[in-house]
From TrEMBL:
Reactions the enzyme catalyzes: (S)-malate + NAD(+) = oxaloacetate + NADH + H(+)
Cross-referenced InterPro entries: L-lactate/malate_DH (IPR001557), Lactate/malate_DH_C (IPR022383), Lactate/malate_DH_N (IPR001236), Lactate_DH/Glyco_Ohase_4_C (IPR015955), Malate_DH_type1 (IPR010097), NAD(P)-bd_dom_sf (IPR036291)
Family the entry assigns: Belongs to the LDH/MDH superfamily. MDH type 1 family.
Residues of the Lactate/malate dehydrogenase C-terminal domain: 172-334
Identification of the protein by name: malate dehydrogenase
Protein EC: 1.1.1.37
Pfam families named among the record's database cross-references: Ldh_1_C, Ldh_1_N
EC class: oxidoreductase
């Protein structure tokens, strides 16, 4: 017998039937790295998402404990846990959306690129599983360094013959969430603010476009310098405050759920779902770049151009592209050898 918390197919079908009667759509979502600092609150929040009918929680440690715990929440989604590489295929089969926060986080003094050595291999293995078991799933990649792990994922999928650039998205949502929050020092309510953040997800590659903030606002150069620096170094601010205990987990889980929910609303067919993400792109000469994208039934329906930039942002863009080019190349060569 499976453990009590491990719901059987009959339970899944019973719940699916109940939901179908209510006309509610349901998507199957897997979280890889579900027992981690991001994974646990992310799993909890996804269990609360009414668009999720089945939630698979995979990790190499402690997946049964997290699954047992979350399975007691009286929300609609059915939860199942998967532990260790031998259960990866079962975790992935049939999934519509796969969210990946697996991998090691930074400690003070490290850059995100310092994580490449360990996380590149983890992302490669997980993406090989996706290519085999759910090649049509939308992939939300959180593991750092995102600027390199997204190219790694793309190369793995290309090698397997399953690559669809519309379905692979590097999660940069936390940069937008931070930008919206930090704008409060200027008297703006974070709930009403939308700052596009483009480029990538590390240091100078994080490029907030404050000239395009909604509602339209004008900032002094001093305010722009303060905000740009704080947004670019928001991750380091948390890493230092946690003093060796890891990097952002709770705000990241919040951002990941905001982004995953947008992907699911797109899959459902909602109109006008637009968020920033690091994706395959022709907006610049680089093969990947973060900009606003419109999400639809097939993943990315449209990649938006940068829009008008001021002189400060144009200089920032050149710096961002220079660093991004190296990070993308590093990810590509990791697979191509
Ligand atoms: P964590 O160490 O708390 O959790 C990571 C989890 O991944 C652990 O439970 C671990 O067992 C699991 N794991 C390790 N190898 C695995 C494998 N092969 N398969 C499945 N699971 C595996 O770390 P965290 O704080 O949750 O951060 C996870 C990653 O997310 C880090 O790389 C971090 O840098 C990144 N991150 C990205 C963003 C972003 O904005 N994109 C924000 C915060 C953190
Ligand atoms: C973040 O922006 O918080 C994450 O990328 C984690 C980190 O290492 O800073």
């Amino acid at each position: 017998h499976p453990p009590k918390y491990q719901m059987e197919e009959s339970s899944v079908l019973r719940r699916a039937n109940c939901r179908a009667k209510g006309g509610a759509p349901g998507f199957r979502v897997a979280i890889l790295g579900a027992a981690g600092g991001i994974g646990q609150p992310l799993a909890m929040l996804m269990k609360m998402n009414p668009l999720v009918s089945v939630l698979h929680l995979y990790d190499v440690v402690n997946a049964p404990g997290v699954t047992a715990d979350i399975s007691h929440m009286d929300t609609g989604a059915v939860v199942r846990g998967f532990l260790g590489q031998q259960q990866l295929e079962a975790a992935l089969t049939g999934m519509d959306l796969v969210i990946i926060p697996a991998g090691v986080p930074r400690k003070p003094g490290m850059t995100r690129d310092d994580l490449f050595k360990i996380n590149a291999g983890i992302v490669k293995t997980l993406c090989e599983g996706i290519a085999k078991c759910c090649p049509r799933a939308i992939v939300n990649l959180i593991s750092n360094p995102v600027n390199s792990t997204v190219p790694i994922a793309a190369e793995v999928f290309k090698k397997a013959g399953t690559y669809d650039p519309k379905r692979l998205l590097g999660v940069t949502m936390l940069d937008v969430v931070r930008a919206n929050t930090f704008a409060e020092v200027l008297g703006l309510d974070p709930r009403d603010v939308d700052v596009p953040v483009v480029g990538g997800h590390a240091g100078v590659t994080i490029l907030p476009l404050l000239s395009q903030v909604k509602p339209p606002s004008s900032f002094t150069q001093e305010e722009i310098n303060y905000l740009t620096d704080r947004i670019q170094n928001g991750g380091t601010e948390v890493v230092e405050a946690k003093a060796g205990a890891g990097s952002a987990t709770l705000s990241m889980a919040y951002a990941a759920v905001k982004f995953a929910d947008a992907c699911l609303r797109g899959l459902r067919g909602d109109a006008g779902v637009v968020e920033c993400a690091f994706v395959s792109s022709q907006v610049t000469e680089l093969p990947f770049f973060a900009t606003k994208v419109r999400l639809g039934r097939n993943g990315i329906d449209e990649v938006y151009s940068l829009g008008p930039l001021n002189e400060y942002e144009r200089i920032g863009l050149e710096k961002a592209k220079k660093e991004l080019a190296g990070s993308i190349e590093k990810g590509v060569s990791f697979i191509r050898g």
